Fold each of these.
Amino acid sequence: MLKKSERTKLFIIEKTAPIFNKKGYAGLSLSDITKATKLTKGAIYCNFDNKESLVLEAYRYNIQKYIGPLIQAIAKESRALGKIHAVLDFYRNYYQLVKSIGGCPILNVGIDSKNNNSKLFLESKKVSKKLLKGLIKIIDQGIMDGDFKSTTVAETCAKAIYAQIEGGAFLAFLNEDDAYLEDSMSAIENYILPQIKKN
């Protein structure tokens, strides 16, 4: 069971995370945090050294909450093709999953922090690279298992799939239309996968 101080810290993170995802680092004010948590400025800074340390934790919370289910879905599948389809199924529903918090945490923080917060930018980049490496690992597994052609270049294929996913997510939130993600997942299914699957 969490100690009272740990529960308070988690409460602040939970309340701050969706606001931070919508407003970004520069747009998030201390008054936003105190209003959401109904705690004083002193109580906030009693639990966090500064705003940057709080938003880093809020970002990690968003990743765990909204990207964590993807990792769990992949882990349920034993074959590479099943893992790829788990990824596609997850992102077909992604727009609805993160719509209420203002969009994809990786995209939002990556774009927002690139020129104004190096720590946040590096954290977002680290998450993005981890997802890409996961896709490369899945495709490598598919080659070894004989599901994918031996001529498949795992990194190139994984980058194409990941770019399609993030591009679809960006356009879906920009246009407030989840059809972009659905179309992007279908493009992976109908154009990229047939190129690497063994007949």
Note: The mean pLDDT is 95.
Amino acid sequence: MNTSELQKIKQRYNIVGNCDGLNHALDVAMQVALTDLSVLIIGESGVGKEIIPRVIHDNSPRKRERYFAINCGSIPEGTIDSELFGHEKGAFTGAIGESEGYFGVANKGTIFLDEVGELPIATQARLLRVLETGEYIRVGGQEIRKTDVRIVAATNVNMRKAISEGRFREDLYYRLNTIPIQVPPLRDRGNDILLLFRLFAMQMAEKYRIPKVTLTEDAKALLLHYKWPGNVRQLKNITEQMSILSEERELNADLLKKYIPENPDSTQLATINQPGQHSYESEREILYKILYELRGNVSDLRRDLTSLRKQLDDAHELNEAIAFKHNNYIETAPTQMPAISNETRTIPTISQPSAIEVEAEEIKAEPESLNLSDLGRQMVEKALERNGGNRKKAAQELGISDRTLYRRIRQYGLDKK
């Protein structure tokens, strides 16, 4: 694009500046306007990104169709799908009628999605489908609808950072970024800063019929060396403040310092953080992170409790079996002794106790001399001996499961014999 055509574009859209970065952005916008390719405008907040999509639409084959500029960051997450894609009657509380949505109304036209990096993940998936197939479904509907819309998006978010943190779909980024246009920050535009200051000062003088403010040479030098984190928007605000509040119409560096914030620490994009830290665009994402960590803690606690409960159940099962066998043995032992007739009360002259008496005495003494662990080990050993080492039969005799018996064998060290 030659110089005369570029100047016509600047005059038509009231664009002030001659820096190479700005001229290149306008040149690319004019070239891509004749196509239907998606465009992603990248630049810091306040640089004037909203002018580029207007230039693209007005110089495209769609210039006679409708143009919509939508700020994605200003629409609540709960209603943004309805705003963009429309909804059916009764789809949600308050949906008393049908809505076409922007993609339905803007058919054949252009939609400018400002702050596209703020879109929720679910909405990003819907937008990707529109870009790839031109199809969408209303909220609460089932019918697939078609639309022919040119999409131009803009962002001040560090998209690479957003993708790495899972806040923006990588496939959608590449689909939007078919033609990237970089709008330079004000601090890189050199003497454009002075030209913009004169424009804003003149506009204020004409609007309020007051003398125009001017700057001395040292004030101009200060203006040029300031970092301008708020870019063109900040310069306009400061110029308006000086025009109304300053009693002097010519400001030097000392007077200018009263209106310019001192020592701005950073001019980086809002999403860039210190190394080792994570950035979040909203409190919602912080809450999601906390809930995710809490869910992991609850899962670990549930797993530990399940394991502990299983161990307690196994121990309780074995203890009941031991107690049952022991009590049954004690109760049945005396019945095996020979009954003494009431008629015959002769005291045996044998000095040694019978085998039955000895066994009964040993069993009666066991609870006093053995603890529960020793008794369990003894019961398992005897059951294995009586069944010739057959663990399945021994478990059936003890009234416990095979797994519990195997665990007790390992616990008592009987598997090493």
Note: The CA atoms of residues 213 and 246 lie 9 Å apart.
